[in-house]
Amino acid sequence: MSAAILTRATLGFAGRPILSNIDLALGDNEFVGLLGPNGAGKTTLLRALLGLVPPLAGSVEVLGAPARRGNPRIGYLPQTGLATIPRLRGIDVLSASFDGNRWGMVIGGAARRAAVDAALHRVGAEKLAQRPLHTLSGGERQRVLIAQAILGSPRLLLLDEPLAGLDPRHQQEIVALLRDVQQSLGITVLVSAHDVNVLLPAMDRVLFVANGSAVLGPVAQVATAPVLSRLYGAPIHVVRTDGHIFVSGGLAA
Question: HEC profile for 193-213?
Fold first, then answer.
């Protein structure tokens, strides 16, 4: 079963298309990087998979059924401002997420404690979760929030710019962590980012969105000058050297 299938899907807001006539399928148990310029539709696509943005045309299926709000089989890490809430600890975030209830509720019950502890252990954040989020570094905070996203053992994990604001070392650590989570849980991970290079060690396939269109495939087939130039509608140059891919031209990936 595919993790997600979009069939002739047009996605947008208030009747205004952002991505048009998209056909793609995310496989089971794969790591996919979602790349493209700001405003190209990366967040819109993630929200469509979450059932928050109904397709203007076509269909969006997730895990064998039409996309719907509140699907417990999907884990999601948004671009978040939780770190600014005073005294909010990671453990508070996870405990609230467990019940889908208000922030800061007291953890109770053996099942709840076991699920929260297991999620924190998987990402190595047991001690970090006891500290207020605003005292954590960006990489530490993302580690805790990834634990929140995998709480409940989802089959599809969606992450919206989890590497934003992190230095290169912490970006590499988070990508390695996500790959480990994806492989150990046997789930599908879709992570949006701006830089293809930081995701290269982890990606099974790459999904580029730009200019209202999308192309999905292996990095070697998709990250090429002809494919990206056609997608972006502008001359794009791709240089490969020392295991890195550099994209430049009318628009940068």
Answer: ECCHHHHCCCCCEEEEEECCE
